[in-house]
Amino acid sequence: MDIDLARQLSQDGESKILLFVMDGLGGLPHLKTGRTELESADIPHLDRLARESACGFTVPVAPGVTPGSGPGHLALFGYDPFKYNIGRGVLEAAGIDFDLRPQDVAARGNFCTVDGKGVVTDRRAGRITTETCGELCAALRQIRLDGVELFVEPVREHRFVFVLRGDDLSEAVADTDPQREGAEPLEPGATAPEGKATARLVARFVDEAKRILADPSTRSASSGQASSGQASPANMLLLRGFARRPDWPSMSEVFKLRPAAVAHYPMYRGLAKLVGMEALPAGPGLDDSIATVRENWGRFDYFFLHYKHTDSAGEDGDFERKVAKLEEVDAAIPSLLELGPDVLMVAGDHSTPAALAAHSWHPVPFLMRAPWTRADPCTAFNEPALLQGSLGTFPAVEALPLAMAHAGRLTKYGA
């Protein structure tokens, strides 16, 4: 269903939809046991929920395409990820409530670690603290670039936002992040002729930042460990997702919903805000987030609840930790059900198998519980069992229209 058809068919109502996203949900079999993370986890509540639901797999973008978190979430929100795609910089900026203006160009930054040859050995610099990130950002703000304003703002842990403000800037700048260890940072070249001047500004910033971050006094001060002589492992940075803020139709305009987001990580708050959700305060724990949903249950009729830790464990290649995080989620499922959503979707934005320690192209586990769903032969919430689900494997962008129908929020099409 495209946006225009959604506008035509959507209608107001009192029913409530809850989308619970376990980031990086899908997995692959462990080499020793032959069981995926979901198969290995003790998740009785999710298994029972699967037996009461319509089940299957979603494809976030297209078969064989490994999705980023942005397209993966936008699809679940009902926005075609091919039409509504945006660079990571805008998402991070929106997530921290940065006042991104029409002429601005933003990129997402990682503080990273490079060796003596300039090769990236850790893309996340050991996941430095947010406090250290803030101190490093403050050091980089001393850089001056001709003709533009420069902003370097901390996000969380190793992540920061890089923003250029000025006339005649372009988002047509290539990433410097090679997206893997064992490679050198890439040159910030232009991806189109109009991006050449902006790329030169970015290159100047990167060169100056490299000098500052390589200085042991800067890194020792930022680590708070100057007396011990130990410096922060962040001695370089990587940039990706250069973009301008888009002007997209909101979920309230298109789907006639009053939507809210409960997400602790800034990027996902930013995604939600770009499609018109109100980003509610979210604590670090899942219980905190569920409490926020409960406190605001009467104000909204659509809730997006995000859980990050399944993805973090998968990206770190930590199979056992991902299993433990799935079990943490399972323990919270009764609290979600107590809210009484008319439609509950449990989904993922993409798969992050610990075996790959990265996002992957594999279809993502999905279930939907609603009064009018037909229970199917699926008996558990894991990949082999979900193959028996009645929903099969379908585009993630169809999840919201499916939920809307089961919530009584779509009118008939045609005479």
Question: Your description of this structure?
Answer:
- This protein is of the alpha/beta class and 415 residues long.
- It has two domains: 3-83 and 249-406, Alkaline Phosphatase, subunit A (3-Layer(aba) Sandwich); 93-243, no CATH class.
- Helices cover 33% and strands 18% of the residues.
- The chain has 15 helices and 13 strands.
- The strands form two sheets. The chain has an eight-stranded mixed beta sheet, with helices on both faces. Strands 3, 4, 5, 6 and 7 form a five-stranded antiparallel beta sheet that branches.
- A hairpin with a 2-residue loop joins β5 and β6.
- The protein is globular, with a radius of gyration of 22 Å.
- The two termini are 18 Å apart.
- The model is unreliable at 225-229 (pLDDT under 50).
Which key terms come to mind for this protein?
415 residues, alpha/beta, Alkaline Phosphatase, subunit A, 8-stranded mixed sheet, 13 strands, globular
List the SSEs and their pairings.
Blueprint: H1 3-9, E1 17-22, H2 37-40, H3 44-51, E2 54-59, H4 69-76, H5 88-95, E3 105-114, E4 120-122, H6 130-140, E5 149-156, E6 159-165, H7 196-214, H8 216-223, E7 236-243, H9 251-255, E8 259-262, H10 266-274, E9 278-280, H11 286-295, E10 302-307, H12 309-315, H13 319-338, E11 343-347, E12 364-369, H14 383-386, E13 392-395, H15 399-406
Parallel strand pairs: 1-10, 1-11, 2-13, 8-9, 8-10
Antiparallel strand pairs: 2-12, 3-4, 3-6, 3-7, 5-6, 11-12
